Amino acid sequence: MASNYLNIIEPIIKKYDGKKEAIISILQDVQTQLRWLPGDVLALISKKLKIPLSSLYSIATFYKSFYLKPRGENLVTVCLGTACHVRGASLILDELERKLKIKSGETTQDHKITLECVNCVGACALGPIVIVNDDYYGQMTKVKVDKLVDHLLGKKE
Amino acid sequence: MKKIKIKINGQEIITEKGKTVLEAAQQVGIYIPTLCYYSSLKPHGGCRLCLVQIKEMKGFPVACATPVEEGMEIITDSEEIKSLRKEILKLLLTEHPSACLICAERKSCQAYQKCIRKTGITTGCRFCPRDGQCQLQKVVEEIGLDEIELPSNYRFFPIEEEDPFFGRDYNLCVLCERCVRVCHDIRGAGVLSVYFRGSEVRVGTPLGLSHLETNCQFCGACVDVCPTGALYEKQSQWLGVPQKSEESICVLCGLGCAMDYKVKEEKLVNSIPSAKGFNEGQACVKGRFLIPYIVNNRKRIVEAYLKIDGKHKPVNLNEALDYVAQKLSQKRGQNFCLILSPYLSNEDLYIGQKFARKVMRSNSIDTISSLFYHPFQLIEGKREENIFHKDYEFFIVLGLSPLEMSPVLSIFLRKKMKEGKKVAVVSPINSFFSDEADIFVPIKPGQENEFLSSILGYSDFSQFKKETREIRDLINSKGRTLLIYGNEIFQNKFDKLTDLPKEIDLLPVTLGGNTYGAFLLGCHPEIYPGFLDLEEGVKKFSYLWNSELPSLPGQGIFKVAKNSEKIGALYLCGEFPELHPPRAEFIIYQGIIHTPISAIADVILPATTFIETEGTYINLDGIIQKGISVTKPKGEAKPDWWIFSEIAKRMGEEGFDYQSPSDIFKEIKEAGLLSFLKIGNLNSKTKKTKFASIESIPTSAQSSSPIDENSFRLVFRPFHWSYRDFFLVDEIRELRRIIKPDNIYLNPNDAAKLGLSNGSQVNVLTQNGVIQRKTIINDNIPEGFVYSFPDLPLLLSASLSSPIEFILNVQIKRG
Predict the structure, then answer these.
(1) Phi, psi for B536 (deg, rounded to 5)
(2) Does A27 touch chain B (CB under 8 A)?
(3) Sign of the dihedral defined by the CA atoms of residues B347, B349, B355, B361, in that order
(4) Which CATH superfamily is domain B390-505 in?
(5) pLDDT (tens digit, 9 = 90+) per residue, B659-693?
(6) pLDDT-based confidence at residue B501 (cuts at 50, 70, 90)
(7) Which of B79, B294, B408, B468 is spaced 20 to 30 A from B311 at the CA atom?
(8) Which residues of B touch A (CB under 8 A)?
(9) What CATH number is attached to the domain comprising A121?
């Protein structure tokens, strides 16, 4: 496992000339490939760049966009903004949590789906809205949610 | 420094440019509350308690991070500031259990603070050490807070008690980041940091690792800077507020850091590095945490014992001394052998060898240091000023790992690096310290000496040509260079060090707290005090001591350890490598702790530790430092010099009438033994030292023979985890969790070749026996080499002469 990570990390560090200052870009690039930042990866980067692991962990926990837990192949985002909320977004979220057997912010056991909430995506007219990866699904209902989840889970690689 | 004039609260103050407003106020005794400020750390401006008003500056700048300027008018105590501070403190305290801080009954409660459950668990500091060190208490007192109307926000962090030596209750943390800053900026370890953000911010180790899993050195610096009870020392946690604090030195290594010893009811509570010493408030795990374990150990020898019918019976000390005197008067001659410790004070060592030579007529005096060094190796050098204060431009670290041998030295070097000085580390092992160095040369073990002579231009080293050139250029361009060298150099041949270019000064880093003192004062079978050879020594000292003295070489520790059967009387007052149990006709054991060797002694005499008696020690830097008596000796324990003198007196000898160590020191000084050393106190900033210089250095076994396919070179690391007869790792369970003498460290590639994983049991086969070890895979270890802590019996049997060889050819087989 560690050597796999090394194959990913080394070209990225090289891309930034091994500069310590590029740490955020490096972490972002690594995350693009792995979808999250495993502890082993942070330890390897710390060794390569000679930055204390504690400093890396500090950066990774400070920014919301870095994930220290495994992320699924598909990101399902539920909007809980005011407009979506009054149109029953919380019911949509409940349904998703029940169907996927995970809580918001978690990932399914098979690493297929990660469920998240946001506070407005600026598409209030479509509320309640669910976003799967880059696709927007507007005016969601429980029935639509069930279909969507079945579709996502049934999707073969 | 340019003097400037400022005004604080209307008072005119003359201060220096470059100081902060806070420092200027403190200088004249104006109180400004602070939490995150710590004198040796960079200003942080995190707690906002020190905010002040400055004329013509917007808002409320923080005093700790605002530099003073000419004509500044500062107000520190207006009503507006006071109420602001109060609000800030309230917010700060919503996350800190505050029952003990704001309770109306807190004054009358002080006397009963023994109880730990007076307040609810969630609102009281259940794990607070209550050692009188809480800065938060002082701040609340000064700012004056009786009520917090904000709801309490207890964080419910679990208490972290699993790691050795110190525990952590981050529920008490006020996020001042002092521990984070000391860990990163001063120690360079970078174990602690601040994680998450907003209301979730917390301090701790990365990824929730325990401190044992990080590269924590357990130096305790974070505990010492913590203004609350969030980080606390476990061992002194429930001992309460110490009654007195005495400054003295720590002798657990040759640096001799200044420490504040906290004492309660004549019992040592703990030892905290003193900010006044050259160590500037820093220490290592030994000085910070281990001293109470040594002094208060339940296995301490507190009375004298005689072996009667094969069993040790406690007896009156006088009786034991009479018995020893009577026995020893029949054992005069070279067959009397005295083993001293390189951790003893100059006075103890001097009287010990005087006793052996004058009373017992024997030159068989030695210390364990002879196994590692030849005395002539140590009179090398030509330093003239204290290295901690002299302006060296370039430092070369060779043949030692400062992080391991002497963490305080590595802090000193880090500081120099920050000041822009250059540091070169030449070591087979990479560490976070060598990572920071300007030049890192990963030579192979055993090549240290070769590399040294190539830097000095005596020979050419085929590898690392670029690095060698860089180092040479730096010596030439920078001038004043300090070469810090350690055990790996001593174990190699070196005979050219006296021809050093004049810009290079030397700092040998040796094991033992007073190794230099032991050799200087003649604790060696072939050397009289003052590094005199036998002939000169007899001439000088037979006159001084008014007695006939032995002129033949005595038996050294190497010989005695290999074969002690023919010894008439073996007087053990220090570490003895146990190849076989000593089998002399008569064995005296004078020490601080019961050990397997003390169990076979005929007489056991109780000795004091360094904090129970006065004495002087010569540190690595060549300064004579004085240690004072901090607590009373345990039980009947007596200083070693006193015991030697008493036995001598009982044997009818004259010249042992000493009242105190200062009488002995006077005698040492009058004998001219210290003429080239400067007597310093802990705070001395200057000194003049002149080391003698000698041409030829005896060589120990060469250690760079080639490696064949299947064998490895086993490198034994210097083992400094002892104090006299007290083996720290054996006796202190907590320390055994950090230092594992049973481990063997090897490179991942070698481990793969042998099919070994972390924690495999292996047999290490040498020509002289097998040792069992547990593998630890570490990619800092060079390929083809394995590292371990020394097995002295094995090394003794493998070596033909002393100093012994520390690199062996071995084979490794799965156990």
Answers:
(1) -65, -40
(2) no
(3) negative
(4) Dimethylsulfoxide Reductase, domain 2 (3.40.228.10)
(5) 999 999 999 999 988 765 644 433 333 332 323 23
(6) confident
(7) B294
(8) 184, 189-197, 205-207, 214, 432, 435-436
(9) 3.40.30.10
